[in-house]
Amino acid sequence: MRLFSLSAALVAAIVISATVFAAELPYEAYAPAVIGLQNAGVIDKPVGNDVRVRDTVNRAEALKIILRSDTAAAQQVDREKGNISPIPLFTDIDQKAWYAPYVETGFDRGLVKGYPDGTFKPGSPVTVAEAVVLVARLYGENAAGTAFRTSTDLPNKSGEWYSESVSAIIARNAIMKGSLLTAGKKMTRGELFDLVYRMRTVTLKNLTAYSESAATVIPAPAPASQNGNVSQSSTGKSFAMSIPSIGITDLPIIHPADPYTQKGVLAVLEDGVGHLMGYPGGGGKIMIYGHSSGWPWDLSQYTKIFRTINKLTVGSSVYVTYNGAIHTYQVTEKKTVQASDRTMFESDDEGEMLILYTCWPPDSIQQRYLVIAKPVTTVLK
Asked: Which residue ranges make up each domain of the chain?
């Protein structure tokens, strides 16, 4: 199974020394998570962009990454920074340390409870089980009575303190295939990045809630070409899409700052189309969603941008500019599904695919229309 196939541009974007990789998975496997979390502002882009995916991560660092993956939790951390209590929650916490606001927020949200001796052990390596429980608690996936599940990539054991959280995380498909984790293993930064990234993308709950109403796509000129190849977007957009056969060019693609609420998912559609899940060159599913309809009085540029995607034919080309490369996809399938159908959000082993997604039929929200395209070529700038 080929976990991920990255273009040279994406591999270079991570710039991780190959000399440190002796573990099971290649470092490219973590690239979609690293890029996705950096783009979302969850993790930093250090000098040289060496994100040290093979290094273990301590409990304080893990708590920071996990809390910053949720908008509301991250905002609470920022508020705590200016109003930190002088009295620590645990005996080994320095209230002047960088991690103190994260511990305060984690405790307030029920993520951290400390050890029986009253310590938190911020500098100790976080185990896989501890990280999974923290993530499950943040995303509300640790309910009592969760059906037991286990996996070859994260064996579970019934009756343990982490059993229900592990079961929930496995059910959410948030464990990378081939990772071969164990509950007591010290977690690496790459493994934590991937877990958090999957919980932010694979477990989306509100996309089908958005509604639309009526109209017509605004035609645009076909993209310019150079020696037969589609050129980069004329305006220099770093993430954009062109579909010449239906008159779409240089269409901005925007990842929502808050992909977990209806408001957050819809907000980006005022300025282009939205993006969820993976990124071009990452080897997984990439969803681009947009309106097919709108209120009669709404004449904004993108209100009905996907109204004619049903006119695409098998073999039609879709061009996506992303991260210094032009990715060409070819349409392989078109279909309608019920609004409640979650299949397209589930991870699989089918390789990279681009999914164009909109409400259907126009002026209705009963179904969703999907255009599925597979990668053909990647041209670097």
From this structure: 8-201, 207-380
Q: Is 247 left (phi over 0), alpha (psi -120 to 50) or beta?
A: left
Q: How far apart are CA 288 and CA 1, in angstroms?
A: 25
Residues 6+ apart with CB under 8 A from 82: none
Backbone torsions φ then ψ of 333, nearest 5 degrees: -160, 150
- Mean pLDDT along residues 174-197: 92
DSSP 187: P
Q: Give the burial string for 217-250 (b: 16+ CB within 10 Å, else e).
A: beebeebeeeeeebbbbeeebebbbbbbebebbb
Q: Which two tokens stand for residue 98?
A: 């960088």
pTM value?
Answer: 0.51
Q: Does residue 97 carry a pLDDT above 70?
A: yes
User: Does the pLDDT at position 212 exceed 50?
Assistant: no
- DSSP letters along 72-109, please? HHHHHHHHHHTS--SS-SSTT--TTSTTHHHHHHHHHT
Name which of 179, 160, 110 is nearest 139 in CA terms. Answer: 110
Strands (E), 191-309: 225-226, 229-230, 239-243, 248-254, 273-277, 285-289
Instruction: Write the DSSP symbol of residue 349.
Output: S
Separation CA 144–CA 164 (nearest Å)? 7
- The CA distance from 162 to 74, in Å, is 24
Instruction: For residues 366 and 363, give the distance between their C-alpha atoms in angstroms, rounded to a whole number.
Output: 10
CATH number attached to the domain at 207-380: 2.40.260.10
In this structure, what are the phi and psi dihedrals at residue 132, rounded to the nearest 5 degrees? -60, -40
Q: For residues 147 and 374, what is the distance between their CA atoms, to the nearest angstrom? A: 35
Does residue 296 have a pLDDT over 80? no
Buried residues in 81-96 as b, exposed as e (16+ CB within 10 A): eeeeeeebbbeebeee
**What is the torsional sign of CA 340, 345, 347, 349?**
positive
Query: What is the predicted pLDDT for the residue at 329?
Result: 94
pLDDT tens digits, 154-167 = 999 999 999 999 99
Q: Residues 344-374: pLDDT tens digits? A: 777 666 789 999 999 999 888 889 999 999 9
Mean per-residue pLDDT over the chain, rounded: 79
Query: Is residue 112 a contact partner of residue 134, using CB atoms and an 8 Å limit?
Result: yes
